[in-house]
Specification:
The protein is an all-alpha fold and about 210 residues long. It contains twelve helices and no strands. The protein has a domain at about 1-50 and about 55-105. It has helices spanning about 5-25, 30-35, 50-55, 55-70, 75-90, 95-105, 110-125, 125-140, 145-155, 160-170, 180-195, 200-210. Helix 4 (about 55-70) packs antiparallel against helix 5, helix 5 runs parallel beside helix 7 and helix 9 (about 145-155) runs antiparallel to helix 10. About 30% of the residues are buried.
């Protein structure tokens, strides 16, 4: 049986969201925050900066309406996904995680909530959990963006460049790979290759050279 938040719990999340929403809006972008390659966020879900977000009163109203709708229709996965996308745009990771976890339970065969959950967990520094989500996504729908995101997690955040490189190389072989993503993947693989190539130790070589 699926478990959903009781009305009181939903109301608490609604209040907390509006109390802290504008804190999340001032967060920097993924690339600026980590100075590393980021996971791929679906094109219709892009975090906004504070200046862009200041005038989105209508969007905030829609978030409130969606929360109320889900409170009355706790099994509406489409509404949960729509709400989670808005929360990701506002970088409200905690609230987004709550609704995405419920969407995953309600629709275990749907890859989208799992993928978005992975992105959200990554942004909360829960990288191992994020990788677990993306591994599950890969079992449902193996796509270049999923493999790239897994590669980034393993190479840059989970200290497993061998596994990360494997995912990146596999991504290059999958259908639907865009030129832009292929370039990003190849850049990651080139960086891995350069790190794996030992730098000659000229000092050691000089010591080892026979004296004349």
């Amino acid at each position: 049986m699926n478990e959903y938040l009781p009305a009181s719990g939903m109301q608490r999340i609604l209040l907390l969201f509006f109390a802290f929403a504008f804190v999340g809006m001032t967060a920097v972008s993924l690339g600026q925050r980590f100075m590393k390659p980021s996971l791929i966020v679906p094109s219709n879900v892009r975090p906004m900066n504070a200046e862009q977000d200041a005038g989105h009163t209508g969007d905030m109203n829609e978030i409130g309406q969606l929360m109320q709708h889900i409170q009355q229709n706790p099994g509406d996965v489409a509404a949960m996904l729509h709400l989670a996308e808005h929360l990701v745009e506002h970088q409200n990771w905690t609230a987004a995680e709550t609704f995405l976890r419920k969407a995953v339970v309600a629709a275990p065969g749907n890859a989208k909530p799992l993928y978005l959950l992975g992105v959200v967990l990554h942004n909360q520094d829960k990288h191992a959990e994020a990788a677990e989500c993306l591994e599950r996504v890969m079992g449902l729908r193996d796509e270049p963006s999923v493999r790239y995101s897994l590669g980034v997690l393993y190479v840059h955040y989970l200290q497993d460049p061998a596994l990360g490189g494997k995912h990146l190389r596999t991504a290059l072989t999958l259908p639907g790979l865009s030129d832009a993503l292929a370039q990003r993947i190849q850049a990651e693989l080139d960086a891995l290759a350069s790190q794996a190539t030992p730098t000659p130790d000229t000092g050691a070589a000089a010591k080892a050279a026979p004296k004349k």
